[in-house]
Structure formats: structure tokens, C-alpha cells
Design brief:
binds zinc ion, 166 residues, mainly beta, Thrombin, subunit H
């Protein structure tokens, strides 16, 4: 055990490296380019099942974690498509399949949708996360665990030291 080292729990700021691999072996995401992930535990920034699996780990620990689609980004929903009038978009520029956009509904809720198809008069939006339906295989290395500062707790997210952007 790592006695004396701070362990991951709510209100700790965690820095880690991870690689996310899909069932087909494709690397979907990785921090190995020298930009580790830093987050405030308990703030809901990450997948809950991912964060839960990290609880109790300390700097230097490694974890291999597999998440089902249910614990990841959801099952793929064939119905989660919407055809909207292209007039709703300020410009046709940037309307490319795969592009993520923010959609606001009548109640002011914001959703992320992905452009699926672009037609002359309409755009088909896909509300599935790009990783919906995927089983997620994470290889995690915990780099640092420290208590959050008062400012971080107040803001509800981690800071990178000076000059963090909001
Ligand atoms: Zn802040």
C-alpha cells in the first residue's frame, strides 16, 4: 500500500495519463502526447464509472479498466437523429459530417450533436456520442494526487496553476 500518499477521492485534483482503446484495437484517445488529463474528483467532469474505478489510487498506480457502453457513452440509438432546416445555421461554412455543434432547445437546455449529413436544404444531426455503443478499454497511470485549492473547489474544476482559462 502507499501509506502517506494522498489517495483519489472527492475534492482531490488528479493528474493522470491514459490511453483509450476500442474493441477493434483503435486508439480513440490518449494523453501520451505530453498533455496529461487533470481533473477535480467528484465534480462530474468525467464518466462516473471511470472516476469510481480510480477511487483510492495514489500517484504511481496503474489501472486497466474496461467500461461497457452503458457505463461509457451509452448504447447507440438509431432514433437519435434529427433533420433540421439548413436556415437554422448561420452559415454553410463548417457544416461537415462529424463536426460537433451545440444545440439549444426551447427550454434553454444545451445538447451536443454531431453533423451526420449535409443536404441542400437540411442537415441531419446525430445526438449519439461518437463513442456510443463502444466498449472502452482504458490504460491509466496516476501521475499526481493533491488536495484541491479553495479556489478550485469554489470554481468546481481544476486549475493548471497560473493563467487557466475558463
Ligand atoms: Zn477556475
Amino acid at each position: 500500500m502507499n501509506e502517506g500518499k494522498p489517495a483519489i477521492r472527492a475534492n482531490m485534483v488528479v493528474t493522470l495519463d491514459y490511453t483509450l482503446t476500442l474493441d477493434n484495437g483503435e486508439v480513440a484517445d490518449s494523453t501520451q502526447d505530453g498533455r496529461p488529463l487533470r481533473f477535480l474528483a467528484g465534480s462530474g467532469e468525467l464518466l462516473p464509472a471511470f472516476e469510481e474505478a480510480l477511487l483510492g489510487l495514489t500517484a504511481g498506480d496503474k489501472l486497466n479498466l474496461t467500461l461497457s457502453p452503458e457505463d461509457g457513452y451509452g448504447e447507440y440509438d438509431e432514433e437519435a437523429f434529427e433533420e433540421v432546416d439548413i436556415e437554422n445555421f448561420p452559415s454553410r461554412e463548417g457544416l461537415e459530417p462529424g463536426t460537433a455543434i451545440e444545440v439549444h432547445d426551447a427550454d434553454g437546455e444545451t445538447y451536443v450533436a454531431y453533423i451526420s449529413e449535409v443536404h441542400d436544404d437540411t442537415v441531419i444531426l446525430d445526438y449519439n456520442h461518437p463513442l456510443a455503443g463502444e466498449t472502452l478499454h482504458f490504460q491509466v497511470t496516476v501521475l499526481e494526487v493533491r488536495p484541491a485549492t479553495a479556489e478550485e473547489l469554489e470554481h468546481g474544476h481544476s486549475h493548471d496553476g497560473d493563467g487557466h482559462a475558463h
